[in-house]
Amino acid sequence: MRMSLAQRVLLTWLFTLLFLIMLVLKLDEKAPWNWFLIFIPVWIFDTILIVMLIVKMAGRCKSGFDPRNGSQNIKKKAWYLIAMLLKLAFCLALCAKLQRFTTMKLAYVFIPLWALLIGGMVELGYNIFYIRRD
């Protein structure tokens, strides 16, 4: 089952809208919810993306698949999976800090986000400056 681009955009928009509404209610102190509850739309969306990535990567394990075709594709999907896990780690650390479950310094909370941004810059630089030698 494949989703069209319009369906993916609508799903992304709905989850983002729901998260922002819940965030505004929390920040205005209209809702005394837990920070982990506020981030549920983000985690549901991330879980959907992670499952889709894992299924696509597992599809390469079926019999009859030639591993020489699309070796760059698996590297890109692996980077996407790592990026999603770093984002998830950042969200969990941020919620734990905001809920005061931990006394971790704020600089440590942002380490997964910094790693994600550095990895994104490396990926961007690789895609821009890499010259294929065929």
From TrEMBL:
Membrane-spanning residues: 36-58, 78-100, 106-129
UniProt KW keywords: Membrane, Transmembrane, Transmembrane helix
Entry coiled-coil feature ranges: none
Keyword Membrane: yes
Source species: Rhynochetos jubatus
Leader sequence residues: none
Name of the protein: TMM60 protein
Keyword Isomerase: no
